[in-house]
Amino acid sequence: MRLTCSAILFPKKLTMQRHINTVTRACFHHIRRLKQISQLLGKDVAAGLVSAFILSRLDYCDAVLTGLPKSTIAPLQRVQNAAARLVARLGTSRSPLFLPVQHRITYKLCLMMHLVNIGRAPAYLINSVTATRNVVSRSRLRSSSSHRYEQLRTRHKFGERSFSFAGPAAWNSLPPSLHELTNTVTFKKHLKTYMFTRAFGP
């Protein structure tokens, strides 16, 4: 198998359908090939290959899929479900293996906002959002000392797909304890636990 570099295919109306179709075909191709040798693989090896050939493609720049209808993202979820079944057949655990695609997108948004919050994100991302504490009209409110960000108003659903809207929306939904973390490794660990709890319950 050969792991090739991914690319994002942007249609004129940003439906992302062409990109999703391309990723779906590539992932199912690798799943079929992995099934052919699945009897030779242990669960850990299979999980590693699935992560390298499948999950890496699902996660690549997945933040651009923010705000898309569930029906549009559904093919990617079917890919992940097929990958999970492949790994699960080689083990005995019945616990969820992977975070659902929709939650993986939110996870990526929150991670990007964490980098914004600690000043390690690219300047164009930092400049696209505004911390609540920096808004003059909120200067005397309790939220002015928090790590929350202004969620811009938009008249169209399309506008909700922008990072300046979706990023703060995802970030503000997190508990304050996650906002306060400055170590990225620790943040990712706790965020993953939180996202799994939201997706599957305690």
What does this 3D model show about the protein?
- Mean pLDDT is 85; it is low at 1-5.
- This protein folds into 2 domains: 17-97; 102-200, no CATH class.
- Helix content is 53%, strand content 0%.
- The protein is globular and about 60 Å long.
- The protein is mainly α.
- The termini are far apart.
- The longest helix has 20 residues, at 17-36.
- The protein is built from 8 helices and no strands.
- Helix 2 (43-59) packs antiparallel against helix 3 (70-88).
Write the layout of secondary structure elements.
Layout: H1 17-36, H2 43-59, H3 70-88, H4 101-117, H5 123-126, H6 163-172, H7 176-179, H8 184-200
Helix pairs in contact: 1-2, 1-3, 2-3, 4-6, 4-8
Task: Describe this protein with a few key phrases.
single chain; 202 residues; mainly alpha; 2 domains; 8 helices; globular; disordered N terminus
Cα-atom radius of gyration: 19 Å
How many structural domains in the coordinates?
2
SSE string: HHHHHHHH
Straight-line distance between termini:
38 Å
Shape: globular
| Low-confidence runs of at least 5 consecutive residues | 1-5
Give the oligomeric state.
Answer: single chain
Mean pLDDT: 85
Structure described in brief:
The protein is mostly helical and 202 residues long.
